[in-house]
Design a protein that fits this description.
By secondary structure, the chain is mostly helical. It is 51% helix and 0% strand. It has helices spanning 3-8, 10-29, 33-63, 87-90.
Length: 119
């Protein structure tokens, strides 16, 4: 089902590459060196973005699931014991045997300061 989304990645890739073409076209007509450099940097960033979108589309085509799409929690229960359905509700219970608020930290004992040298 998600493999179609891999093909749809061609649309934003084409748009980004078309915009970079026009940025380079305008950059060639500029006389200022600073603006020419800025135009080249913008074009390179657009190429990088197009490459990332395209590679994500290829990954979706190859694996059948989008980037960052994980299996449901129930399948992770073997890898992470206690992570079955509802593990989010147990997160704020604290470690086993420790229910409720954490105990207050104990104050550190005060130490005596040594007299300054020469006195």
């Amino acid at each position: 089902m998600f493999r179609v989304f891999g093909l749809l990645a061609l649309v934003p890739t084409t748009i980004l590459l078309t915009i970079s073409f026009f940025v380079l076209f305008a950059q060639k007509k500029l006389e200022s060196n600073g603006l020419k450099t800025f135009g080249l940097i913008v074009a390179v960033l657009l190429w990088i973005a197009a490459g990332l979108v395209f590679s994500t589309g290829l990954l979706t085509l190859a694996t059948g699931r989008p980037l960052g799409f994980h299996k449901p929690c129930g399948e992770y229960s073997e890898m992470h014991p206690g992570w079955g359905p509802g593990w989010q509700h147990r997160m704020h219970e604290g470690p086993k045997g420790l229910r409720g608020p954490l105990p207050a930290p104990q104050a550190a004992p005060e130490t005596e300061q040594a007299p300054a040298p020469g006195k």
